[in-house]
Fold this sequence. Notes:
Two copies of one chain form a homodimer. Chain A contains 13 helices and twelve strands.
Amino acid sequence: MIDVAREAGTSVSTVSRALNGSDLISPEVVAHVRAVAGQLGYRADKRAQEFKLGRPLTVGVTVPDLANPFFSEVLKGLNAAARAGGYRLLIGESGEDPAEELRLVDELVDYSGALVLCSSRLTRAGLEKALALPVPVVCINRTVKNAGVVAIDYRAASRLLLEHLTGLGHRRVLYVGGPASSWSDGERRRTLRRTARALDVTLDEVDGGWSGNHGYDAGPAVLHSRATAVITFNDLVGIGLLSWMYDNGVEVPSELSVASYDDIPIAAYSRPPLTSLRNERARLGELAWQQLTKRLGGDDWPAPDLLTPELVVRASTGTARRRARIR
Amino acid sequence: MIDVAREAGTSVSTVSRALNGSDLISPEVVAHVRAVAGQLGYRADKRAQEFKLGRPLTVGVTVPDLANPFFSEVLKGLNAAARAGGYRLLIGESGEDPAEELRLVDELVDYSGALVLCSSRLTRAGLEKALALPVPVVCINRTVKNAGVVAIDYRAASRLLLEHLTGLGHRRVLYVGGPASSWSDGERRRTLRRTARALDVTLDEVDGGWSGNHGYDAGPAVLHSRATAVITFNDLVGIGLLSWMYDNGVEVPSELSVASYDDIPIAAYSRPPLTSLRNERARLGELAWQQLTKRLGGDDWPAPDLLTPELVVRASTGTARRRARIR
DNA sequence: TCCTAGCGTGCAAACGATTGCAACCGATCG
DNA sequence: CGATCGGTTGCAATCGTTTGCACGCTAGGA
């Protein structure tokens, strides 16, 4: 900058003003300075700028698992929105571990003007700590006070699933659960139970996880239950389960129906294609950013945004014609 | 910091030294300052530190598509390695668009001490521009001079695939290609052609893309070719293609074999499970970081790291018994 | 002709840390 | 007893910007 000033025969203040389009500076000088700067290949040091200006134009994000398509797409949406607003994303992955997530948050906050916790696995206490930080925090898929909240409406989601299954005549449904630290697993269980009661459906539950392997491994337990329909924590689990059923000669859907949450792209291509709940994941990210901008603009936190998913019926659900058993 | 200094009855210099563990300071003072700092809840401003200290401890990364499991896992590996080295990741997504990638690079460089371009879609000229930047650049899955290079050994990869297929008796193979701007698609084509010639296999090619939809849409073209085996650009394309074959009554592998590159987790759960080339994607990220540290340490760029994949044979490949045709 | 706006510009102080250098201390040595 | 020295500490400059304030200049009105 000093070089530019010297070369242009002005002071650095003038260079700064010229480059930033201040209005109390003559147009000729602006043109001249711009020319000189371009010629010298000068680039303003963004870090110094942001340093001087105050809070960083960065939003820190945590996700449990980068390789999970659900989170990738949330990140896509958030990234696009944040970039449009002049912000960048600093992404951290907690590996589904609450302690690691806390460390991560603690580190990200040093470089971020805001935080987005995506499907936070934080303990209650950890979350308190995060909210006490001197930056605004938005939670995606976790409700909490004094923070922005954007979430899937699991009440509606679970109702859609169960109504679909009862419509097909199922009266006994099994839920294959997700990671214990997952808030959204808790919500899915809670809303399923409640809706099952209302619909007079028997709901059993077994533990699962978040990956295809977890679903595959749940195969025997599923068969042991006397359910005719299964709802899995997510599509990866569902697809893994479908695979076990195929390997063990159980026909889907004539012996067992399988449905799931999220509708990741690959769900349409499983065999049979998986009935699932489509949610606008990218939109989750977008809305998180919107909440953030409002808050950064000085307003209070807006009301939580709830996204209602849409049931995509595919061939993995149908009427039960036979009891499943291993052949 | 000033507050801490005042409260501790010292100068800010002393506080700085105490907190950073300088050796020319008395232990008692260190203890005292630390205590005061803790009590006041003082946290050093990392951004100011890095600003003063010089280059940012951040590595900027570009990927074409965050939702693609291949890239997610590379990011996982890179992230883990970089964090262990005290660096953070600034991630940008180009959306498979060369122009956008260039903009991205131009922005990331303002905040990064190093750049990692993952499967760069940059044009030749764009890449030159990126390499001319005042930070070290590592390319993952793209070879280039004067930069770090970490890549899959596609020569070995293509050979593994074709030898497997010829071993099963296939003499006519079709390649369903990837995005035009993808270097790795180019490499796959090049090495396949070359190996096909050596093995006396007829190789046809059609254009595809990177997603399940691209694979599904390629179905008719695949059937029109007279190939008995198909190699797809990646697993997503492969799974999409399998789905089309199923929907149209083509039996895999008895009428058509399908194999692919990458072996993403879901490949094991397609129906039939997909024969694919396993590569250590997380390791790609790790190696990229290693190259970077060497370079940042003052050395020249090390020789390119080539990772040889491993063929995972599953049920989607077998001996062709019938000519495929739509029923 | 002089005074006063008002516009354009430069000086210098910040932002929050690190660090070379000088100064100070007590102790040891000659 | 004074010089020296090692061990600590503080002063002030610095990183690359932005910006409040003061100043100078020009033009227009009285």
